Amino acid sequence: MNVSKISIAAILMGSMALTACTAPGQLGGNPNDPKRNTKTGALAGAVSGALLGAAVSDDGDRGDGALIGAVLGGAVGAGVGYNLDKQEAELRRSMDSNVQITNTGDRLIVTLPQDILFATDSFAVRPDLRDDLSAVAASLQRYPGSTVQVIGHTDSDGDAAYNQQLSERRATAVSEVLLQNGVPYSRIQSFGRGESQPVATNLNAAGKAQNRRVEIVILPNA
Predict the structure, then answer these.
(1) What's the pTM value of the predicted model, to 2 decimals?
(2) Sequence ranges of the domains in the chain
(3) Which stretch of 23-37, 46-60, 120-134, 190-204 has the lowest confidence by average pLDDT?
(4) How far is CA 32 from CA 15, 17, 85, 103, 215, in A?
(5) Comparing C-alpha atoms, which of 183, 175, 155, 187 is closest to residue 215?
(6) 213-220 sheet: strands from edge to edge
(7) CA pair distance 170, 165, nearest whole angstrom
(8) pLDDT at residue 72 tops 50
(9) 98-220 belongs to which CATH class?
């Protein structure tokens, strides 16, 4: 077996070992596994690194390039996944139970229902919710290697143009609280999506309540 074949075999064996850490049909693995995204990140990084390493190498060296890329990519991916798992656990301990935290493996999405953030038709953040936003800001300062998107959403009641403006103002209001708590301006982007991105039906009150939300998306810089 030549070097290229040995290298490719090593990549495949490593990928199989990492995949074995996840449940069948679930790339993200067991949702109760506190290290699930470390494993997923390592696998994704290894595969991406292997492909990139092979692509940029000469024909005779593609096996070695793939192996080097897999090792480096796996290390980077595992580091990103580990930090996300750790940050998620810390946020869950410090925030209100009404706040939803979703860890997709490559980002954290902190969803705050607008009904607990703002009074009706208001974009002034309620004083009792500032503690949760302060907790997010503190977390962002402990993990400086990320950018943040603050995205406002509404239900479909009322005029679409008004809903768009309201979502923008609410996203800006949340961003300002993060800024006031020490998160640098350069790390924050603020958007309003109005009623254009519902996560539930707008045909009943329960669905509308889910659609009225502000999302804080934490994106690691790998």
Answers:
(1) 0.67
(2) 35-89, 98-220
(3) 23-37
(4) 22, 20, 11, 12, 23
(5) 175
(6) 100-103, 108-113, 213-220, 146-153, 188-192
(7) 9
(8) no
(9) alpha beta
